Every structure is written in C-alpha cells, then in structure tokens.
Amino acid sequence: MLIRSKEEFDNYYIIGSHRLFVTLVPIIREVQGATVAPVLGKYLAPILSGEDSDTFTLMKATAARAVALLTMQKAVERLPVEVIPEGIVQVQQSQPVKSRLRAEQSARASVAASLGADATRALEYLQQLVAQLDADGEEVDTSITGPIVHSKGMSF
C-alpha cells in the first residue's frame, strides 16, 4: 500500500486514531487499486519497492495524497464518521446508520464533494507527472512551486 500507517495518512489528512486507520485499510486498498494504480501503471511497482529518486518521491507523495483524499471521501459517504476541524472521528451510534446518514445527507455530500475535488486535482497532477516521465527525453520538474490550495485550506 502507498499509505501503510496512521502517521503516513496524517501527512495528507489527519484522522487522529489508529483504530480509524484500521477501519480505513480496506477502502485504502480499494481506492489504490481502482483509481491510483491505473494512473501510475508501470511506475507503481518501483514506487512501492521504495526506489529512490526525486521523481518517484514526488509521484508517491502525489499518489498518496490522492489515495488519502479519496479514502476520506468514501469514508464520509459510507462510515459513521464526523468531520471536525482537527480531523475526523468515528462515532458510536445508538441509532441505525441509515437513519443517521439520511439526517446528515446534505452535509456529508458537501464534504465528500470537496474531498473528491481535491483528490481529482491530485490525480490530474499525477497524470501529468506520468505523461512527462513517459515522454522521451523530457525531465520531470520535481520542484514544488508553492502551497497546495484545497477547497478547505492549504498545505505545503
């Protein structure tokens, strides 16, 4: 997996709990296999094996960001979680999950859409990196030009 621990996941989206990370592992695998692996193609194996180059480091960070954001999007849509300013928490429910999800459907949809938009930008950037790397004789620019602006803030 591109993201192997809660600490790695927290680099891209703070979840705050090892237990929540364990709950997210199947979703991480699903997202990585269905969405990110096809974009990376032949570069996935060297990235996972830890091949060290600036390009692969940048590709891994971009792919991991996309995996984390898409995982959180699916978690908000599927799991009993709540997003708070400090991250996300898994909630214990005394009522059926379906009734709670119905009550918060618009708020959940808004958060999921925001996470999906951020993930789409990361995937588009990853596709550009792969295309540059595949182009004959073209070097990949691995410099980071500035902050990454998300719909809910920014990171560096």
Describe this entry's structure for a reader.
The chain is mainly alpha-helical. Helix content is 62%, strand content 9%. It contains six helices and four strands; from the N terminus they run ααααββααββ. The protein has helices at residues 6-10, 18-40, 44-49, 54-78, 97-103, 105-134; strands spanning 81-84, 87-90, 148-150, 153-155. The strands form two sheets. A two-stranded antiparallel sheet has the order 1-2. A two-stranded antiparallel sheet has the order 3-4. Helix 2 (18-40) crosses helix 4 (54-78) and helix 4 (54-78) packs antiparallel against helix 6. The chain is globular. The protein starts with 5 loop residues before the first helix and ends with a strand. The mean pLDDT is 80.
- CA radius of gyration: 17 Å
Number of strands: 4
- Main beta-sheet annotation: 2 strands, antiparallel
Strand percentage, roughly? 5-15%
Report how far the terminal alpha carbons are from each other: 23 Å
